[in-house]
Amino acid sequence: MGHNEPIRRSAASSGEIPDKLYFRIGEVARLCQVPTYVLRFWESEFPQLRPNKGGTGQRLYRRRDVEMALRVRTLLKEEGYTIPGARSVLKAEFRQKDASQLPLMDGGAPPAAKVLRNIRNELASLSAMLAKPVGKQPAPPKAQPIPSLRAQRRAAATPAMRVEAPQIPFDPPEPAR
Description:
Blueprint: H1 11-14, E1 23-24, H2 25-32, H3 36-45, E2 52-53, E3 59-61, H4 63-78, H5 83-100, H6 113-131, H7 149-157
Antiparallel strand pairs: 1-3, 2-3
């Protein structure tokens, strides 16, 4: 055994990603065999590499994030791409992956945009028909108009109607004797 060789082979050297839900940045750095600051730099350069941050602000990588970091490392370190070149390769791979996930019609040809627009329009018309009420419903009662501010002030300025108090009959004065 050589002087600089590790005693035990790690998962990073065997190319396997452990079966875990989340990985911390240190674990991903060991798997990719790069320092943690390099991973942080890659996050700023590659929009596809976006780990979640936990409640404490610590980066939590999912398996797909780890795979993306390993792909970035392969492009940069082994295949010799520059960062802009690796970014364009990843964009092209992402576009190709998206195109392969579209539904296929007519013997493997992708659906035309016109067909999709027609389907969307038919669905919108069906939705409008279903939204209409069944049967005739009475019209809602008309609301009383709200008086303008000027009318409200005018009504407040006019004196209230004088309400006369009912006449209380008094005993007539007694006739003089």
